[in-house]
Specification:
Elements lengths: L7 H9 L3 H15 L4 H18 L14 E7 L2 E6 L5 E3 L13 H12 L4 H12 L6 H16 L6 E13 L35 E9 L4 E8 L4 H8 L3 E9 L3 H10 L3 E3 L4 H7 L9 H10 L5 E3 L6 H10 L5 H17 L8 H18 L6 H14 L5 H6 L9 H18 L17 H6 L3 H10 L10 H9 L4 H12 L5
Parallel strand pairs: 4-7, 7-8
Antiparallel strand pairs: 1-2, 2-3, 4-5, 5-6, 8-9
Helix pairs in contact: 4-14, 5-6, 6-13, 16-20, 18-19
Length: about 500
């Protein structure tokens, strides 16, 4: 039976049903059979399609410079319609300031790139898809990485949620990295930054500039905010600057025993649940056994000695009142600890380590996905999700140009030279007196400036009594706190006692 020939109208209808990639294959076959070049026409189709989509989305409906809706057409350049603002006289296109500016990738390719990014494709895997499905041969890995970086930056730049209710806050630390850099920069004064082949221990721990501090906050709904706040220790001023605008009418703030959060809550009279990182060690060192009937009485005794978790800025609570508030409001650090574990897995495993100068984009992208999951009950993974998010990216008009990606530099608060010199000296002293060559100060040690008076005043009375006892003082329980601190400061072996106690109280949690 002879094959039926299809007519012209049927051909047109068939062409309409094709995806751009399928249509491109038809054009390539036509080029081969008729010895013609239609690359220019294909590019014109891509530009026209993108312009039509941007027009429907009202992108650059108003002047991107002054916001005026008054404009007039001002000719075309390489097929792109140019407009002139009749108020400020600036010229622009529908692409200006968007991720599509200077791009000639078809819409379908951008959506597929975003879909692969959301599904954690590696750069080589993305290259294979672009080559096999879209005919993009000859791509360089750097080019595909840059496209992915533009999308990650755009999602990380979308508006953040406000946090309210019970909010848990804590820092986690990621080793400073200069992946992909030809010239290594040292952030430790007078010390060379050498390449790290394999696992190389830090010299001074998280309080120095060898680690990037990622400060995280998460509320009881599950919304989170994560920001790379500094190299080394977080400071009070940086925390307030980065987080205050996002914390709205908190019922409670839950943290570890870092003085920054205690001060923040005191200044704003926010109920503050504080739990020391070595909580479990304190319980076990004092005979706590969850299988015995005496477990609650032990915790109550430690609570009354200010050695365990507490709620501050609500007056002096009895243990019964504290326990009821803690249980009824589910006060803990469980959510933020889970968040930290997910961050480490994302940065170190999925992304196979990230250069610190790009870390904020990756952390912002990670945070965006988690918050999207709270809103939708799942992570964005499908093509429909990707197209919806790509529309949001275009409407937000965030564009991270290739030049900006290449010229990105690490801009984070770093410890002062004076502080680093003090950290080095005190670390050496602590290692000597504790006979522990791996001793490192942590943020919860509250040695922001190594001022012994400030440190002692931040401690509960029970800790001060313990220090006084180890220093061999007499009748110290009769002294008021300020008098006791003054007396302790006159003890010749005070520093040794403090550092030995720090060593005993440290946990293996990090």
């Amino acid at each position: 039976m002879p094959k039926r020939k299809i007519n012209h109208e049927e051909v047109l209808e068939y062409v309409k049903s094709l995806s751009f990639t399928q249509f491109k294959e038809v054009v390539r076959e036509y080029e081969k059979n008729h010895s013609v070049q239609l690359e220019g026409e294909l590019n014109s189709i891509i530009i026209l399609d993108l312009q039509q989509r941007l027009q429907v989305l009202d992108v650059n409906k108003c002047c991107p410079s002054c916001g005026s809706p008054c404009r007039q057409k001002y000719g075309k350049r390489n097929g792109v319609q140019t407009f002139r603002c009749t108020d400020c006289e600036k010229r622009y296109t529908l692409f200006t300031g968007t991720i599509l500016e200077k791009s000639r990738l078809h819409w379908d390719i951008w959506v597929r790139l975003l879909e692969m990014t959301l599904n954690d494709y590696s750069v080589p895997a993305m290259m294979n898809v672009l080559k096999n499905d879209y005919g993009l041969n000859g791509l360089e890995p750097r080019t595909v990485w840059q496209w992915r970086m533009k999308l990650i930056h755009a999602l990380a730049s979308l508006p953040l949620h406000e946090l309210t209710g019970v909010i848990q806050i804590d820092e986690t630390f990621v080793r400073e990295a200069q992946k992909g850099s030809r010239e290594l920069v040292s952030y430790l004064s007078n010390e060379e930054r050498k390449p790290r082949y394999g696992r190389v221990p830090s010299k001074y721990g998280v309080m120095g500039s060898e680690f990037a501090a990622i400060t995280t906050a998460i509320d009881n709904r599950g919304y989170s905010i994560c920001k790379v706040t500094s190299l080394g220790r977080l400071t009070y001023d940086v925390f307030v600057s980065e987080f205050e605008e996002h914390i709205i009418e908190p019922a409670y703030i839950c943290t570890d025993a870092n003085n920054i959060y205690r001060t923040y809550c005191e200044m704003r009279n926010i109920p503050h649940y504080e739990k020391p990182s070595n909580y479990d060690k304190i319980l076990s060192d004092n005979g706590y056994d969850p299988s015995t009937q005496m477990k609650d009485s032990i915790i109550q005794k430690l609570y009354e000695l200010d050695m365990t978790d507490h709620i501050y800025n609500m007056g002096r609570l009895s243990y019964k009142e504290f326990k009821e508030l803690k249980e009824n409001n589910k006060l803990s650090l469980a959510r933020v600890n889970e968040l930290h574990a997910d961050i480490k897995a994302f940065i170190n495993v999925k992304m196979k380590n990230v250069s610190t100068k790009y870390l904020q984009d990756y952390i912002g992208y990670f945070c965006f996905r988690r918050n999207w999951r709270v809103d939708h009950g799942r992570y964005p993974t499908s093509r429909i999700d990707a197209e919806e998010l790509f529309v949001s990216i275009l409407k937000s008009k965030v564009n991270y140009t290739i030049a900006e990606i290449e010229e990105t530099k690490l801009v984070l608060p770093t410890p002062t030279k004076k502080y680093l010199a003090e950290l080095k000296k005190e670390t050496a002293t602590a290692r000597y007196v504790t006979n522990d060559m791996k001793f490192e100060f942590e943020e919860e040690d509250n040695v922001a400036n190594f001022n012994k008076r400030e440190y002692l005043l931040s401690l509960p009375k029970s800790r001060l009594y313990d220090i006084a006892k180890r220093c061999g003082m007499k009748k110290y329980r009769k002294l008021a706190v300020y008098s006791l601190v003054s007396a302790l400061l006159r003890q010749p072996d005070l520093r040794t006692v403090i550092y030995q106690m720090m060593r005993e109280n440290k946990t293996d949690s990090r």
